[in-house]
Structure formats: C-alpha cells, structure tokens
Amino acid sequence: MVVSNTRFTAAELATQLKIGTVSAVEAVQCHLDRIDDVDGDLHAFLHVSAEEALATAREVDKDRAAGVDLPPLAGVPIAVKDLICTKGIPTTAASRILEGWIPPYDASIVRNIKAARMPILGKTNLDEFAMGSSTEHSAFGDTHNPWDLDRIPGGSGGGSAVAVASYEAPLAIGTDTGGSIRGPAAFTGTVGVKPTYGSVSRYGCIAMASSLDQAGPVARNVLDTALLHEVLAGYDPRDSTSINEPVPAYADAAVHGATQDLKGVKVGVVLEMVGNGFQPGVLARFYESLTKLQNMGAEVVNLSCPSFPFAFDAYYLIMPAEVSSNLARYDGMRYGLRVEPTDGRPVTAESVTMATRGQGFGEEVKRRIILGTYALSAGYYDAFYGSAQQVRTLIQRDFAAAFDQVDVLVSPTTPTTAFKLGEKLDDVLAMYLGDVATIPANLAGVPALSMPNGIDAGLPTGFQIIAPAKEDARLYRVGAALEAALEHQWGGPLLDQAPELTVAE
User: Which of 4, 49, 81, 133 is labelled catalytic?
Assistant: First the structure.
C-alpha cells in the first residue's frame, strides 16, 4: 500500500489524490499516525476525530472512483481550532465551563470545509476562549513548540499552528482577535492569515470580542493558505457583518507572486512598528526581507502612523469590554458547566452563576471579564471604552492615509521569537505586549498575513504584510514573492530546518 507523506503541501497532496497515487483514506491515516506518534509531546489536539475523518475520506475515494467531479481540496485533511462549532464533535473553547459540550450544528466555515470534502482530523488547543498569547491558558494543558518543546507556540491559536508545523495536518483553521493566528505562525515557522473583517463568516465561532474576531487559514506555505482562504471565505446571511461580494482568486495571486515580479508594488514600513522593544535578530531578518523585496522590484517607503502607539491601550479596553458582554451567557443555567453553591447559600440564579463562573473560568478569563466590566461601568464608560473607540477611529484613518501612499504595509509579526513556557505567566503586561504589531490590523478590520522570514538563535521569525480592506489578494502576491526568494536562499522551506521531533514510544 502507498502511504502518503505528511510532508506534502496541501496543493501537492491534492494533486496526488487527483491522479490516484494516494487515496484520501491513506492521506488521513498517515496524518492520524503522525498525531499518535508526536502529539503526546506537543499537545496540539484536544480531540482527534479519527472515525469521522476516515468516513469522509472513504466517501471521497468512492466518489473519485466513480468519476464524480470533486472540489480541488477534496480528501486533504484539516485541523480546526476548538473555538469553532463542529456538529457531533466536542467544542470546548479550552474551558472547563464547556467541557464535554457537543454542538448541535456546524459553524458556517465548517460547512464550507465539509462542502469542500475535507476530512476534519480533530480540534486543536488554544488559550481559554482565545484569551492569551502563548496557549498556556488552556484548561486542558499547554501546547509545546515543535522547534523547542520548552517554548510556547504563541496564542491563542497555538494548537493549529503546531499541528501544521509538526506535520500532523497540512492545513488548519485559527481565529485572530489581536494576533491569534499571526503570532503562532511567527513562532512556529508557518503561514497564517487574518482576513478582512467580515469576509469569512463568524457564525458558529464562539465569540470573544465580536468586533475584532476573525477566522482564517493556517498552512505551511503561502499558496496553501490562499487555497484554504478561498474555501473559508464568502457571504453568509447568518452573519450580520458578512460582506456580500464574490470571493477573489487568492490562489492566482499567490501563483503570480511566486514569479518574484514586484515591479510597481509600493511597500510601506511603519516606523512605529519597528522600534524599541524588538529583538535585534527579529529586526535583522526583517530588514533582510525588505532588501529581497527591493531586489524583486518593489519600492520601499518609510512612513508614520502616529496613532499606532496607542493601539495597544485601545485594544485592551475594547476587547475586555466585549469579552465581558459575550461571556455573560455562561451562567450555569442554559448549557455547559453548572455548579451549585456548597457553602450553605440558597440555590438562586445569582449563587449558581457565581459558583459556576468561579470554577469554570480560568484566571486570564476572569481578569479580562473584570477589566471589561469596569471599563463599561457607569462613570467610566466615556473615559475608557468611549475614548478607546475614538483611538480606533484614528487608527483606521492612519491606515487609510498610509494606503493612499503604498500598496501594502510590512513589519515584524512579533517583537521576539518564542519564549520559554512559564517565562511570562507572572508578567501579564509583557505577555500582552507580544501582540503590539498585530493589534492595529484587528482594530481597523484590514487583512494581514504572517510568514516565516528567517531564524534567530535557532527559532523562526515572522514577517507581517498588511493590505487594505478587501484587498487580501495583495497579501498573497507579496507573500509568495518573498517566500520564493527565501526558499531559493535556504534551499527549501524554513520548516526543513526545524529539529526532527523524537517519536514517542
């Protein structure tokens, strides 16, 4: 029997499936075997849906043998962040308060995946309710970076990034509220995209901060990310913020970019996003990448976005305020965990809610609920939440002014490479500051991509590309061009340079 190689890209695997050198069942089984071998050390998955994935694969093989015209990625397996509802498969948001919950419906993007005939391997780990930058705040244990098992993979979507980086899955879905796709991509040497707000449906994605959340693709190269983005995107009447426009040909943009022709493209460097606090090696790789873009014909322009230094402060008022509102539904009476008081208090709605939320939520979730409730409280709303929304408007204006001058903006994705597990758990501000370069795109609703652009002290660094709203295709053109130039320099993908994981006995 031919066993497909888990190191195929999604595009390569799709080709192998189409010509019949690999079956969908074989493709799924080899990834399930890989999960069995290494996930004990990585903990990328919270749930593995082997039976469901194999059943989908068998149906794909049956239809392919019968000559049925199948979607391009049919049979290519995928992992899904455990913040996204999957009918019949547990969805916990990595929280005790939803432990064991099995949704009665699929999120719209899961429906898209199933329509594309892609087997779902399982649900990936995250910071509880997507609140964190390291995947150390999961109620079910930390996820480990395959480059160094003692280091964080980023968050909140560390599980999805690690599943892809460690060859447990060729593709994954994450969600990004302030960098939760892009940060893990930078720390693990993968590619992750936060699409334009509203271009990918949020229906069925468990809400953290509704005006900031956006689901998006994770893959090992730019083309695969574009292919998955085309599957996920599209208008959804169930989502009131959904954009009713056709899905652009993102994969075509990536193919064009791989020709390394960037003549006429203007690339803007935001001076406020490359300053103090950035690791020297991260900045060195960033400026090396800029040189490569120039060598391919791009014009590099330095520009200022004066409101960007205030993005961090605005985000950490707007996001907790929306968290406080969205998580009010977890009261122990409608679904999920229910805890009744044991201290003699009568069983009332208030006492059940207090006991349930006290035991069901972790410390980071509680911290953000408290901060958000305070920001929304009488007497403080205008001073905090209202002012933060005004800053958000200034950031949107800065983006608009910048995009009048350039086609895309670029920066390092994160100020540092992956830090040690536990290193910043007691320094909340330092942990939050890891998202300083990714937050502005969420506040403005514009698309952004992170891709690997080098190594510093044995760990991958990330390069961020930001485009105007609804111009996500620009990310793929510029990203694919830089990727091609870097792979020529490295002699192959960056992940080829990662240390090989020891197979668990």
Answer: 81
Q: How many helices (H) and strands (E) does the chain have?
A: 16, 11
**Among 180, 242, 307, 411, which one carries the catalytic annotation?**
180
**pLDDT score, position 503:** 53
Domain residue extents for the chain = 10-305+401-497, 308-393
SS3 content of the chain, % helix, strand, coil (to 5): 45, 15, 45
The Cα–Cα gap between 382 and 376 comes to 8
Options 3.40.50.300, 3.90.1300.10, 1.10.150.20, 3.20.20.140; CATH for 10-305+401-497 is 3.90.1300.10
Element (DSSP H or E) covering residue 193: strand 191-194
Residue 186 token pair: 């930078």
Could you read off the pLDDT of 357-368 as tens digits, one per residue? 898 999 999 999
156 given a catalytic annotation: yes
CA distance 479 to 254: 8
Q: What is the pLDDT of residues 442-499, one digit of tens each?
A: 999 999 999 999 999 999 999 999 999 999 999 999 999 999 999 999 999 999 999 9
Tell me which of 156, 160, 199, 242 is the catalytic residue: 156
What pLDDT digit, counting tens, does each position of 89-130 carry?
999 999 999 999 999 999 999 999 999 999 999 999 999 999
Strands (E), 351-418: 408-412
Q: pTM above 0.85?
A: yes
